[in-house]
Structure formats: structure tokens, C-alpha cells
Design a protein that fits this description.
CATH superfamily: Decaprenyl diphosphate synthase-like
Shape: globular
CATH architecture: 3-Layer(aba) Sandwich
Bound molecules: 3-methylbut-3-enyl trihydrogen diphosphate, magnesium ion
Radius of gyration: 18 Å
Order of helices and strands: EHHEHEHEHHEEH
Structural class: alpha/beta
Helix content: 40-55%
């Protein structure tokens, strides 16, 4: 297979609620089933030598959802870390939480921090869990950092360029997103990683997140590599 591998893939994991509704199940059942799709995506990216995978798991807007669903999603992040840490280690995954820390319970933050510490020496896939994440919040936080550095006299406004903003984002060491994937058919960015999406290819598939598996992701990566090699750009989807 010719062409370069994507370095950074971002996924807006959508459609869990619809998946459950189609089966007459509660929404949280859809989230629960989405865990296997998360693990398959991590395995595929680790095997294929992708440098980074950012998974949109909970947006700053998702706090508006029913309390019970919010609680389920927050606890699920901890449960996935607890249950899958051994496999993350085996795969050489480096895990980190991307997003605001406010509003997240201390116990959840402790799990994110622990996962970061335990996996930080690994050499494989950088796995970002975007949780309580908003693209605008990230840019705002970068602006605040810049403003305080200017006020402290450590930076002049003229020195603020793209690199200066880039280096104050939540994951400054990671490259731009090469492919943005959104499942469940909506053609929306939903406040995902605005800065790193500037030059991304966009793949929207109607497959719902719990049904998104190895075959779908490998197909998208292979299409990217064909396109990179100048052999056309059929990503499937719509
Ligand atoms: C994505 O599935 C998961 C999160 C946003 C947390 P949804 O829960 O948004 O599923 P739909 O869009 O209602 O089908
Ligand atoms: C985007 O999905 C956020 C996540 C996948 C976490 P949503 O279902 O929350 O977004 P909208 O409502 O379609 O914009
Ligand atoms: Mg949705």
C-alpha cells in the first residue's frame, strides 16, 4: 500500500443514542457498546503506526444532557481506564486527557492523571481522550496564557504568531489532524479541535459509533494512503 500513514486521526464518536433507540434500549446502552469501538480504533491505530488518535468522548455542551446520562458518561471514562489499562500498556499507548478540568469530579481527574503518569514513557500511539472538551474553550485558554505572559512582560504582542498559539494548546506536541472522522452522518464539527482541524480531510460515515469497527477504520486509512500517493480519494461514506 503506497502513501504515508495519517499521523493524527480525530474521531467525533456519534450515534450511540440512535443505535440504542433503534433497538428499544436506553441511551446508555449505546454508550456502553461504544467502548468496543473505542478499543478497536485504538488497536488499529497502534498497529498501523498512527502517531495520535483524538477521541471526542464528552463535549463542554454535553453537560446539558440528562443528569443520569452525564453521570454514566463521566463514570464510563474511569471504568474504561480501569478495565483497559493492561491492554493500553501492551499496545504501548500513551494516554492523556484533553479538556478542561473544572466540573470533573476529583476521582475522575485522579484516574486521568494516573493513566497519564503510568503510560507517559510508552513509545506507541498517543491516545487523547477529549473529555469536557471544547475547541473554543481550548483556544480561549491559549489566549489567556498568552495574555498573562504579555502582562508579566515575558512576551510581546508582536511575538504572537501561529507557533506561539500552537504551543499553548492542550497537546502542543501533537501534529495537526490529517483525518477527521464523524460517525452517524451529521456534517458538523460540534466544537471539536478547531485549531488542529485547519487542513484536515473530513470523512462522514452514516455508520453509528457502536457499529464502527476495524473494517471501517482500516478502509478510511487505506483511502487516505491512496490519496496521499495520488491514486484518488474514495473514502466511502457519503
Ligand atoms: C455520541 O453519541 C456520544 C456522545 C456525544 C457522548 P450520542 O449520544 O450523541 O448519540 P446520538 O447523536 O443521540 O445518536
Ligand atoms: C459531539 O456529539 C460530541 C461528542 C461526540 C462527544 P454530539 O452528539 O454531542 O454533538 P451535536 O449535538 O450533534 O452537535
Ligand atoms: Mg449525537
Amino acid at each position: 500500500m503506497p502513501g504515508a500513514h495519517p499521523r493524527h486521526i480525530g474521531i467525533i464518536m456519534d450515534g450511540n443514542g440512535r443505535w440504542a433507540k433503534m433497538r428499544g434500549l436506553p441511551r446508555i446502552e449505546g454508550h456502553r457498546r461504544g467502548e468496543e469501538s473505542i478499543m478497536e480504533a485504538v488497536r488499529v491505530c497502534a498497529e498501523r503506526g498512527v502517531k495520535a488518535l483524538s477521541l471526542f468522548a464528552f463535549s463542554t455542551e454535553n453537560w446539558e444532557r440528562p443528569e443520569e446520562e452525564v453521570r454514566f458518561l463521566v463514570n464510563m471514562s474511569r471504568d474504561v481506564l480501569r478495565k483497559r489499562m493492561e491492554e493500553f500498556m501492551r499496545l504501548g499507548v500513551r494516554l492523556r486527557h484533553i479538556g478542561r478540568r473544572d466540573r470533573l469530579p476529583p476521582e475522575i481527574l485522579a484516574w486521568f492523571d494516573m493513566a497519564y503518569e503510568v503510560t507517559r514513557a510508552n513509545q506507541g500511539l498517543n491516545l487523547n481522550i477529549n473529555f469536557n472538551y471544547g475547541g473554543r474553550a481550548e483556544l480561549l485558554d491559549a489566549c489567556r496564557k498568552l495574555a498573562s505572559e504579555v502582562r508579566a512582560g515575558n512576551l510581546s504582542p508582536e511575538e504572537i504568531d501561529e507557533a506561539a498559539i500552537s504551543s499553548r494548546l492542550y497537546a502542543p506536541d501533537l501534529p495537526d489532524i490529517d483525518i477527521l472522522i464523524r460517525t452517524a452522518g451529521e456534517k458538523r464539527i460540534s466544537n471539536f479541535m478547531l485549531w488542529k482541524l485547519a487542513h484536515s480531510r473530513i470523512v462522514v460515515t452514516t455508520v453509528l459509533w457502536p457499529d464502527f469497527g476495524r473494517r471501517e477504520l482500516e478502509g478510511i486509512i487505506d483511502a487516505y494512503r491512496r490519496e496521499d500517493a495520488g491514486m484518488g480519494s474514495d473514502y466511502g461514506g457519503d
